[in-house]
Amino acid sequence: xxxxxxxxxxxxxxxxxxxxxxxxxxxxxxxxxxxxxxxxxxxxxxxxxxxxxxxxxxxxxxxxxxxxxxxxxxxxxxxxxxxxxxxxxxxxxxxxxxxxxxxxxxxxxxxxxxxxxxxxxxxxxxxxxxxxxxxxxxxxxxxxxxxxxxxxxxxxxxxxxxxx
Length: 164
Known about the structure:
Number of domains: 1
Keywords: Membrane, Transmembrane, Transmembrane helix
Structural class: mainly alpha
Number of strands: 0
Protein name: DUF4760 domain-containing protein
Organism: Hyphomonas chukchiensis
């Protein structure tokens, strides 16, 4: 075996090692992406549970949120409590929306979150709160929520017209 043959074999082995290393790195990145998506889903569930727990644990907050006359009947202290609750809720939705945009949060999980967001926005008082609070959120999220709120307003207006 000549020196050239040994060098060629060494080059082939080195190239194979590089390819194997790249395959291994690719598998590690894939696994890391999966774990990141799972962590995002778990964090989301924990945040949602904690925030919804505030309503469950506080009969006063639940009562304020469910009043028929809503925003117009809230005292300053009640308005502050509701505003803080909604700020936490919408920040949670904003984080999920951002994670979804970047492929971290699964579309299937987002569907449930979007349904919860739509449910919140179906309340005219919450839409009014949003109109005054939207400046505190990322532009992409504001655009998204504004579109949902407009869709819900149209649907509610058409529903009201159908009853008249």
